[in-house]
Known about the structure:
The structure holds two protein chains of two kinds.
Chain A: H1 3-15, E1 21-25, E2 28-33, H2 38-47, E3 52-60, E4 68-76, E5 81-89, H3 106-117, H4 158-164
Parallel strand pairs in A: 2-5
Antiparallel strand pairs in A: 1-2, 3-4, 4-5
Chain B: H1 10-16, H2 19-22, E1 27-31, E2 43-49, E3 52-59, H3 67-72, H4 80-84, H5 91-106, H6 112-140, H7 144-165, E4 174-175, E5 178-179, H8 187-209, H9 213-219, H10 227-233, H11 238-241, H12 249-252, H13 273-297, H14 315-318, H15 322-333, E6 341-349, E7 352-360, E8 366-372, H16 374-379, H17 382-386, H18 391-401, H19 405-409
Antiparallel strand pairs in B: 1-2, 2-3, 4-5, 6-7, 7-8
Helix pairs in contact in B: 5-6, 6-7, 6-13, 6-18, 7-8, 8-13, 13-18
Amino acid sequence: MSEAEATLSALKQELEQRVLDSIEFRDQLTAVLPPEAVVEACQFLKQRGYDLLIGLTASDHWPELPRFEMLYQLFSTEKNSLIGLSVRLEGEEPKVPSIESVYRNANWHEREVFDMFGIDFPGHSDLRRILMPMDWEGHPLRRDYPLGYEEVQFTFNFDEIEKRKKYAQE
Amino acid sequence: MSEVQMEISVDELRGLVSDRALEGETMILNMGPQHPSTHGVLRLILELDGETVVNCVPDIGFLHTGIEKNMEALTFEKALVMTDRMDYLNNLGNNLCYCLAVEKLVDLDVPPRAQVARVLLTELTRIASHLLWLGTHALDLAAMSVFLYTFREREILLDIFEMCSGQRMMTSYFRPGGLWRDLPQGFEQAVTQFLELFPKRIREYESLLTENPIYIERTKGIGVISSEEALEIGLTGPNLRATGIPFDMRKARPYSGYEQFEFEVPTETHGDVYDRYLVRMEEMRQSLRIVRQALDKLPDGPTRSNNRKFVPPPRSELGHSMEAVIHHFKLWTEGFSAPEGTVYVPVESPRGVLGCFLVGDGGPKPRRVHFRTPSFANLQALPMLSRGHLVADIVAIISSLDPIIGDVDR
């Protein structure tokens, strides 16, 4: 049994039913957690030697629901083991507790996710936009955010398009 | 619409700087974004007590080009060109990271010749990147001549890249399943020449800096970080190794056949600017060792996978094989589809761990591509490193972290 597998079963014991599922895809192990269990899981993993938060991002499954998924990758430099966490977030205004208290470098990564996806991180010390200008509207990496172009509005479909145009309205 | 907010307000500043700044006791100084020593468009808000830095708040995003968003709109193969443009000094390393992620997602094989050629070229890229770093780092500390020497050698490497891909910097030479083309004629001679020349040149740079009293004065004991703090803030690469942790993805989780090469992971103990310099100098030597081994063992054979569902057939087959025409057409119009799932591939870039998240949704375009770029992660340590130092040292600290703003902002 590899280190990541052992850790995953220990995590299951620690959090009991709160580990919803585990995914094995291309030799990578990922634990699926509910949002409220993230901080606890990270604390547990950090104690187990996963000392480096090596990846934190989100992905948008629009139009599927639940829409957002948070992805974490933790690495243990000592045991040379990589483990992933995946958190599905419900709703149009998703929220997941910040793990900055456990891994300090989550600060900028969470700011980036907030900037790009509009996911809120309660408990974050300095949640501001990081890459986009401060006055930017919308969150560019959402799948329903247009890629640089706008649908052309004609008189016959002006109102219809206006309704689903979320951003850049005068 | 609410009032347009163009600058950081006093309220927001409150959390970032000390209370003394708001009372006017310390000074807020803006540095950049157009400052020659911030290595691109990086802006720093410095809180100063006389010459001493009390707080440093990096403001990034001036070079944000939406690479990740653009990649979502392209097929897997076409999205590759965006990766060169992220960290433009580690173009082939980025290509490699992305290709490995795609290959992992669709489970595609890479022939041995392509694997060794990838290692060889990636290590040359590492040397080229360290050379540019060394030149600009020394330039920041007012040692002009080093810059001229390192750019001379970097030019040889860029010529080799141009020979392979037709481009000096935006190479896109590695493709999912192998290489764009076989290595060109004259490639081996060019690399051999470089191998003969370069060890002398490293000694030359070292003779200019390693024992230079001015350089030592400006770098020793500057920007010190302990290994625990470094891991906590997510430092990787030479910056982490300078604190004494021999962590290198090439050794820890070998990819593209790195396990077949003999090389050491240089470390130092103090974790200051000078040690980061020493680590990088030794890394160039180790890269040279890998290049030499790779050149010796470069096997013959194909340079691209033979799996026609992912790799287009050679042009010569199109004339007589209907099957080849169909594959060609499918791949260049629709592209290949990847299964639903998420992969994460970390590789060692010259700056640290470069990780690629790739999420497939069953179609020919990625649902999400994210790069955990080392510059972004390393730059986060800047406030920690610069507290208590003089303004002039900030320049040394920034350049010792080696941030590439294209890599930070993407």
